Amino acid sequence: MLKLRSSMAGFSIIELMVTITLMAILVMVAAPSLSAYTENSKLRGVSESFMAAVQNARTEAIRRNQEVELVLTTDSPTAANVATANLSSTAGNWLVRVKTNDATPFTYDFVQGRSKAEGSGSEGTTTVQLSATANGSAVSKVTFKGVGQTDLGATWIVNFTSSTAACANTGPVRCLRVRVSPSGQAKSCDPLAASGDTRFCPT
């Protein structure tokens, strides 16, 4: 009877401490890769959300045969702010809008509005950063014409980076880019991918 009770005994304190120590080590080893995976997911989510807005703006311009603007704004991306003049090439919100008159003050129809916080899967703040340029200069707006072309005459480049981690090859994060050509064609790519890679960004 004593032998049966002994065989049914639980973990000893030493076994429990060893198990907890091993689990702590595993968590410490996995934490950096989990953090990088989460940040990469946020970057991918925001860039995909922005890419969808670019495609939506161009499609809307062709459908209406009318100019459609995609603007980066510091204001909340809602219909109430459709006429916003608070544009910034590093803003975290974007609006798709259609100008309804040619005389100032301009009025607009609201098509779509998004925030980078929505695309990153988190409400409020997010670690994803945007910066938009064309020909090396900051550009906060692109207008798609009725035939689908843009008004810039140069490729609009929107970079997506992280405020908490460096891009590969020096860091764990794969930063992304959306390129909008003068013809209106959009491509999502990795600025550090090698030529021949499907993620490669042409110059």
Give an account of the 3D structure.
By secondary structure, the protein is of the alpha+beta class. It is 31% helix and 25% strand. The protein contains three helices and nine strands. It has helices at residues 2-7, 13-64, 116-119, and strands at residues 68-73, 93-99, 108-115, 128-134, 137-138, 141-144, 156-162, 176-180, 186-189. A five-stranded antiparallel sheet has the order 5-4-7-8-9, covered by helices on one side. The N and C termini lie far apart (80 Å).
Properties at a glance:
alpha+beta, elongated, 203 residues, five-stranded antiparallel beta sheet
Which word captures the global form? elongated
Tell me, rounded to a whole number, the average pLDDT: 87
Instruction: Please write the string of helix (H) and strand (E) elements.
Output: HHEEEHEEEEEE
- For the termini, the CA-CA separation is 80 Å
- Poorly predicted parts: none
The percentage helix is: 25-40%
Outline the biggest β-sheet. 5 strands, antiparallel
Radius of gyration, rounded?
A: 24 Å
How many β strands by DSSP? 9
| Portion in strands | 15-25%
- For the biggest β-sheet, the strand order reads 5-4-7-8-9
What secondary-structure arrangement, pairings included, does this model have?
Elements: H1 2-7, H2 13-64, E1 68-73, E2 93-99, E3 108-115, H3 116-119, E4 128-134, E5 137-138, E6 141-144, E7 156-162, E8 176-180, E9 186-189
Antiparallel strand pairs: 1-2, 1-6, 2-3, 4-5, 4-7, 7-8, 8-9
